[in-house]
Write a structure and sequence with these properties.
There is one protein chain. This protein is mainly α and 222 residues long. It contains 9 helices and 4 strands. It has 2 domains: 90 residues, no CATH class; 124 residues, Nucleotidyltransferases  domain 2 (Four Helix Bundle (Hemerythrin (Met), subunit A), Up-down Bundle), CATH 1.20.120. It has a two-stranded antiparallel ribbon with strand order 1-2. A two-stranded antiparallel sheet has the order 3-4.
């Protein structure tokens, strides 16, 4: 999903909050209330969005889940405050930066494991691991660029093949045609390893793949 789609969705949720606040009334006991249906819609839609964007462990999701309850005027205002903070993060580029940092750390760990496997002469396992890091990096580059990473088959989403993602990224000028050819070769080596065609490549080739993929990740950061 593009950043513009995320910011537009936050705007929609804030407008829903304003509509909900417009229904504010006062109870005979001195409290305030809002329309129950609109409140439930606002809470459910916002929680769904925050879960999909940040996950359930993030403070934004947890704060919203805790603070936006009860159907009162103050709860809606609390929800708006959280969404305004989210919008500020989006417009400041913090979401993309955080995602990139976390991904880079995870990828670095897996690449270190692949290096260890190579050092112990487990070329086949190393090739599969390097290829897995490469494919996931391609998927995240596609998400950043708004390129579809899934297709619908038999009414269910199915991940697109890495070769198709590679072609789309090159066509979008995310990286060069030379990188396109290199990525194709690396994915081919990974597929040979994954399908037991171990005699079709050497340990030296996997070592070269390791170095080249590490360079590719560094040049095409999220």
């Amino acid at each position: 999903m593009k950043l513009s789609d995320l910011t537009n969705r936050v705007d929609e949720l804030l407008k829903l909050a304003v509509r909900t606040l417009a229904t504010t009334g006062h109870s005979e006991y001195g409290g305030t209330w809002v329309d129950t249906t609109l409140f439930s819609e606002f809470r459910s839609a916002a929680l769904s969005f925050l879960k999909a964007t940040y996950g359930t462990k993030h403070p934004h999701f947890q704060d919203f889940d805790t603070d936006v309850k009860g159907g009162g005027h103050g709860a809606v205002e609390a929800g708006m405050g959280i969404l305004n903070a989210v919008q500020t993060e989006f417009k400041g580029g913090w979401l993309a930066s955080t995602t990139g940092i976390v991904s880079a750390e995870v990828f670095a760990d897996f690449m270190e494991m692949a290096r260890h496997l190579l050092d112990e002469h487990y070329k086949d396992a190393a090739a599969v691991m390097i290829g897995g890091v490469l494919e996931e990096h391609l998927r995240q580059l596609c998400r950043r660029e708004g390129i579809d990473t899934e297709i619908v088959k038999d009414d269910s989403p199915v991940p697109r093949k890495a070769d198709a993602l590679n072609a789309d990224l090159a066509n979008a000028n995310v990286y060069s045609k030379l990188d396109l050819k290199s990525v194709t070769a690396w994915l081919d080596l990974r597929n040979k390893a994954a399908h037991g065609r171990y005699a079709e490549y050497s340990e030296e080739q996997v070592g070269l793949m390791y170095s080249a993929v590490a360079d590719f990740l560094a040049r095409n950061q999220l």
